[in-house]
Write a structure and sequence with these properties.
single chain, 4 strands, mainly alpha, four-stranded antiparallel β-sheet, globular
Length: 277
């Protein structure tokens, strides 16, 4: 620090600046409970009235006088008595939500209507030729398409059957009238949306799955039996006739088609019409 040999006016201003610096800096060293981030630039008083000159013991070295730069401290420092973000515990209730961020693998449901693809296995043949269907299968498909085209959900009633002959319409239990249940699935409330989906599904290509087993089925659309990452551009166009691009992106996380599919047994029994995994 320079000797005080300057003229009276400059010396007074000099001492005023040192007094101001001491008044700002000393509280910083006196207690670590207060952070520099508490001192805002606009709160630093201008030396309008010269403060009381500081003593030699309280004077601060000249290099510590410029305070504005150290004022910029990280925002993580908090006032005394306040928890910092580092000390704040993570909310425990939000942690279990993590598993929902990534959909589970297909397999929550079981049975022939549930996706069961082997990514390494051979792909089933995609068939468009309806003449290759066994006569009972072709007849049931025709009846379902004709019923769907009428726009009357009640036309499905004779095809639903009763008891064990009823098709699977959900992966859960169904209470009450199955036709009323199908109607309730329709966004329009009358069943036309579901009938349109059924017709579109049955007009797509099909696959023959589980041949020679107890789960021998003809299933529409063929996407049910093909991993989504194996579809070529032409097949994706056919897929988008049934689902939206947003649906497709969601299903890619499962790796399988999980929208509406319909199965018919070789004997011509309507086996299922479900969506989901």
């Amino acid at each position: 620090m320079r000797p005080k040999t300057e003229t009276a006016p400059r010396g007074a201003l000099r001492l005023a600046g040192l007094g101001l610096a001491a008044s700002l800096v000393l509280p910083l060293y006196a207690s670590t409970a207060f952070a520099l981030s508490e001192i805002k630039r606009e709160e630093i008083p201008a030396p309008v009235t010269p403060p009381k000159p500081a003593t030699d013991q309280s004077a601060t070295p000249e290099k510590s006088v410029p305070m504005p730069d150290p004022i910029q401290t990280p925002a993580t420092t908090a006032p005394s008595g306040t928890e910092t973000p580092a000390d704040t515990e993570e909310p425990g209730d939000e942690q279990p939500a993590e598993p929902d961020a990534t959909p589970t693998e297909p397999g929550g449901a079981t049975g022939p209507a549930a996706p069961n693809l082997d990514p390494e296995g051979p792909l089933p043949e995609i068939v468009y030729d309806l003449s290759r269907l066994p006569e009972p299968v072709a007849r049931m498909r025709t009846l379902l398409v004709e019923a769907a085209k009428t726009g009357d959900i009640e036309k499905l009633r004779p095809l639903v059957g009763q008891g064990e002959a009823m098709p699977q319409l959900s992966f859960g239990d169904i209470e009450g009238d199955p036709i009323a249940f199908i109607k309730g699935l329709s966004g329009d409330g009358e069943g036309q949306e579901i009938l349109a989906i059924m017709e579109e599904v049955l007009n797509a290509g099909y696959v023959h799955l589980g041949e020679g087993t107890d789960e021998d089925l003809y299933v529409w659309p063929y996407f049910f039996g093909i991993p989504l990452d194996k579809l070529d551009p032409r097949q994706k166009v056919e897929l988008f006739k049934i689902v939206t691009a947003g649906d497709y992106e969601d299903m890619k996380q499962y790796g399988a088609y999980v929208f509406y599919r319909l199965g018919i047994t070789p004997e011509g029994r309507w086996a299922f019409f479900v969506a989901g995994d």
